[in-house]
């Protein structure tokens, strides 16, 4: 059973960079067949797809966040990471990592528990 | 890329059936049979219920079913149970390797 676990600071100052890591267990990112995703949920609101990465490093991003987002992968550690630059209070959210599977990788079949990141001075 | 439109809330009594709609455009829902549905209980991560419009992952009750007509996808829950009370989200492929979620629907079991 694949498991994902997010980690990183729960508090980030405005204008700084939000950095999170997702550690995958129960399966190897390098095995291929999946994209590894970041999704966020603003407090009391819906889900927002941020982007995802293949083990080769191929990435795709939400156009609305693309200028500020970088997703990277470390296959040796079986981890992938999110960096979001120039954060504001509007980036306060629960951030989830998830595995995307299926045709064109459109099914999020395994999720981390989520981690709340608050942007505040 | 705008969020898909879902009703904010729906409700039903135990044993009844309810349907949640998810309306997109010809650029997302209308163009691809790649709509998935997720259930989220408070404080928990979402769980996939339906993928590719109407396919159910193993282990998911067949009380959950999906369909699509034009730019609108739908999730139907039959034989409502108390534990179905949760938030439900649709998600669609939107072309160019991007995905878009719906705003979510809160289901209340009366």
What does this structure look like?
The complex is a heterodimer of chains A (about 120) and B (about 110). Helices cover about 0% and strands about 50% of the residues of chain A. Chain A has no helices and 11 strands. In chain A, β9 and β10 form a beta hairpin. Chain A is globular and about 40 Å long. Chain B is built from no helices and 9 strands. In chain B, a hairpin with a 5-residue loop joins β7 and β8. The interface between A and B is medium-sized, with 23 and 26 residues.
Major sheet size, sense and barrel closure of chain A: 7 strands, mixed
Total helices of chain B: the number is 0
**Helix/strand order of chain A, N-terminal first:** EEEEEEEEEEE
- Termini separation of chain A (Å)? 39 Å
Rg over C-alpha atoms of chain B, rounded to the nearest angstrom: 13 Å
User: Which assembly state applies to the chains in this document?
Assistant: heterodimer
Secondary-structure-based class of chain B equals mainly beta
Summed over residues and divided by their number, the pLDDT of chain A gives a mean of 96
Q: Which H/E pattern describes the elements of chain B?
A: EEEEEEEEE
Q: Which parts of chain A are unreliable, with pLDDT below 50 for 5 consecutive residues or more?
A: none
User: Runs of chain B with pLDDT <50, length 5+?
Assistant: none
Work out the radius of gyration of chain A: 13 Å
Shape of chain A: globular
List keywords for this structure.
heterodimer; A: 121 residues; globular; B: 110 residues; 6-stranded mixed sheet
What's a concise summary of this model?
The complex is a heterodimer of chains A (121) and B (110). By secondary structure, chain A is mostly beta strands.
Task: Indicate the topology.
The complex is a heterodimer of chains A (121) and B (110).
Chain A: E1 3-7, E2 11-12, E3 18-25, E4 35-41, E5 47-53, E6 59-61, E7 69-74, E8 79-84, E9 93-101, E10 107-111, E11 115-119
Parallel strand pairs in A: 2-11
Antiparallel strand pairs in A: 1-3, 3-8, 4-5, 4-9, 5-6, 7-8, 9-10, 9-11
Chain B: E1 9-12, E2 18-23, E3 35-40, E4 47-50, E5 64-69, E6 72-77, E7 86-93, E8 99-101, E9 105-109
Parallel strand pairs in B: 1-9
Antiparallel strand pairs in B: 2-6, 3-4, 3-7, 5-6, 7-8, 7-9
């Amino acid at each position: 059973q694949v498991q994902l676990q997010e980690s990183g600071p729960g508090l980030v100052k405005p204008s700084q960079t939000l950095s999170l890591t997702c550690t995958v267990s129960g399966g190897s990112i390098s095995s291929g067949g999946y994209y590894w995703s970041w999704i966020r949920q603003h407090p009391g609101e819906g889900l927002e797809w941020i982007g995802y990465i293949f083990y080769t490093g191929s990435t795709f991003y939400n156009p609305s966040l693309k200028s500020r987002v970088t997703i990277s992968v470390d296959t040796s550690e079986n981890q992938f990471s999110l960096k979001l630059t120039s954060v504001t209070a509007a980036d306060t959210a629960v951030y989830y990592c998830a595995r995307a599977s299926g045709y064109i990788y459109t099914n999020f079949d395994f999720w981390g528990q989520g981690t709340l990141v608050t942007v505040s001075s | 890329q705008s969020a898909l439109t879902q009703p904010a809330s729906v409700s039903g009594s135990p044993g009844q059936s309810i349907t949640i709609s998810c309306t997109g455009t010809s650029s997302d829902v209308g163009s691809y049979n790649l709509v998935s549905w997720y259930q989220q209980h408070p404080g928990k991560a979402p769980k996939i219920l339906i993928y590719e419009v109407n396919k159910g992952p193993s282990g998911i009750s067949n009380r959950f079913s999906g369909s699509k007509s034009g730019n609108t996808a739908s999730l139907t829950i039959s034989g409502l149970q108390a534990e179905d009370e949760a938030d439900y989200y649709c998600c669609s492929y939107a072309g160019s390797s991007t995905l878009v979620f719906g705003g979510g629907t809160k289901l209340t079991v009366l």
